[in-house]
Amino acid sequence: MDIKQLRALVTVAETGNVTRAAALLNIVQPAVSRQLRLLEEDIGAVLFDRGRHGMRLTEAGQTLVEYARRVLNEIDRARAEIQPSRGTVGGIVTIGLLPSTCDLLSSALVRSVAERYPGIRIRMSMGYAGTLQAWLEAGEIDAALLYDPKQTPSIQVQPLLEEGLWVVGLPAHGLKKDQPVSLVQLAGQPLILPSAPHGLRSLVEHAATLMELQLTVVAETNAMSVQKSLVLGGHGLTILPTIAVVDDLARGILTAAPLAEPTLMRKIVLAVPANRHTTTPVRCVVEILVESMKDTVHRGDWLGARWLGD
Prior knowledge:
By secondary structure, the protein is an alpha/beta fold. Helix content is about 45%, strand content about 25%. The protein folds into three domains: about 5-80, Orthogonal Bundle (Arc Repressor Mutant, subunit A), CATH 1.10.10.10; about 90-160 and about 265-305, Periplasmic binding protein-like II (D-Maltodextrin-Binding Protein, domain 2, 3-Layer(aba) Sandwich); about 160-265, D-Maltodextrin-Binding Protein, domain 2.
């Protein structure tokens, strides 16, 4: 098994066609077919179902493709770090961001990295906390923002901030940032919440159980964009950190008020692998990410947030 064979495998899997893969790899079609044949002989399993409609991965092929992508990504990162532009820090850095943080942080992060470290190529992956932690442990991302995960030997975390949860609705709901809303006031109101076992849903339901309240959940979704869309469509209220709706609040299409009695807080931490070396490019990007978050909190753009870091 060698790198050429793995590249052939991944390219054919993505294109579904040996001819198109050969064009992308800039080699002749028989060479691609030979690479696949040698790989199948080495693995001892058929990797593709070859039919009139193209090349489809077998179960064994799907498993190997996942590992092959990781191998190729690691090699690309190593090559970029070892051979950066002269006098610069270089490499590929993949950062995992929570959906609620992407809009506010991604642009500033890309801009600052480009200005300070032009040799670094940054990749951003968005996912919920559980997904990001799995990617981090599998080596698919270099660092991630998480919601205060359980202690595990595979990752190390640095607390960054605490953020409060807010009730979000249409302008007609009359929500104001200086007029907190209690959970009791939400009883009987139509609510749009994340699907279980999302951390925000767990926080809200636990608080409601302690207060012996029955919440009316009219819709559940695992996509924050759908949560906001349903609120904009007049289907009910939702509960989110304000960073998730900062642009909507500024435009006046949504209103929000802090959730109180009880006040529900979530802690955001920076997580990096504990069992892998943190490279210089990763440290540089992480430093910029933390600086950007700190500045956002201190400027007051992250409503309801309290900085915990240094």
